[in-house]
Amino acid sequence: SYEHKVNFKKSKEACLSYIQDAMLQKQWERAAEFLTFYVESLEKDFSREHVNPSELIWRIGSEILCHHSQSSVKEFNSFIEQMKTLGVKRYLKVCLEHAFHLLCNGLIDEAYQNLALAESWRFGEQTTLQDKEMKLVQAYRGLLDYYRWSKQKNILLHSQDEFEDLSVEQEMHSCFRKAAVGLKEIIKIPGVWDLFVKCYVDLLEFYGDHNEARQVLNEYAYNSKFPANPNAHVYLYQFLKRHGESKKSLISVLKILHEIVPSHELMIEFNTMLQKSKKRKKRRLGLEVIFAALDYAGWKENVKAWSCLARQMKQIVVSEKHLDWIKQEWDTRKDWWPAFHFSHYLAKRNWQENESLSYEKALVAGILLGKDCKYFKYVSHRGCKAQVKKFRILKKFVNKQKLAYLRISG
């Protein structure tokens, strides 16, 4: 009847609401009870309305079983096997989740077997429709083949038995071939495949196929079909550095990384390379890079970063060349950097916690804000009082740079 349909719909929605509430409060036993009621109510539904709750039950049930205090791997396996039979369209996704759960519980061989069975699955047109899921299954199986290959490689490196070496090497090559197939296929599809790319490149490098490895990394970093991914440029940079590529190549990669993530930890390395360059344009970029990095809270107490900035600014001030570089960077920051970096509170805290940091920051603060800057005054006073020679030299240096400060401040 119509009334029955309405009541059933209301009770179903109420039950799902209770499940959600219990899960959000991490009341897994309570959530499990409501899920049981939900499943039972579906079994007793006599309405002709089409109901397809299998994905809901699968996702909620998996989450509950992963956190329930009385749950076991055996129970999870049993539940997942039932879920595999409920929906052909989701079969491969359920298999992947099953493999992840087994891996989280350290059952690597069982996970591998599960993925191998999923890879051999065929179901008419659904096989074509789920092509991407199948490639994921193959890729994760390839990842486990890589893991096996890595284990065999470590055994080979530490082995002193020639007969054992031969069998281990054969097993290694077998794992390599299997891993390469799965990993190579997945990284052709536009997406973020960091782990798969790293493993595949490791395999290629080990067997000396550097050209193929470089091609893979270039494609991953520069193919416009792939989403912007800082790690892609990091992996390419690390590869080029390992193989002794020119500074020009390394700088070109880090320049793109700087544009995507100006706060990346490699920016100190990038700044150092740029400062060593004879080209004025690159040294100018180096100043921009280190200023940009220090715009982020995570860099506020990075001694290396402040040291890089202090050293370059000191060189510019002493030479009296390119003061306009500092001025251009400072003009966009002078409204908020004083409170962000050079407050009296920070001067006090930095002095107590890290003398080297306070020294580098005081030098920068003195050049940018002059000798009356709160940060510079506090740190230089404390340093001189503690009779630390470098702070006396710092104070004299800043006091002499009145003209530079006036030009920078405008």
Automatic annotation (TrEMBL):
Pfam family, one: TAF1_subA
InterPro entries: SL1/TIF-IB_Component (IPR052669), TAF1A (IPR039495)
One of the GO BP terms on file: transcription by RNA polymerase I
Gene Ontology cellular-component terms listed: RNA polymerase I transcription regulator complex
UniProt protein name: TAF1A polymerase
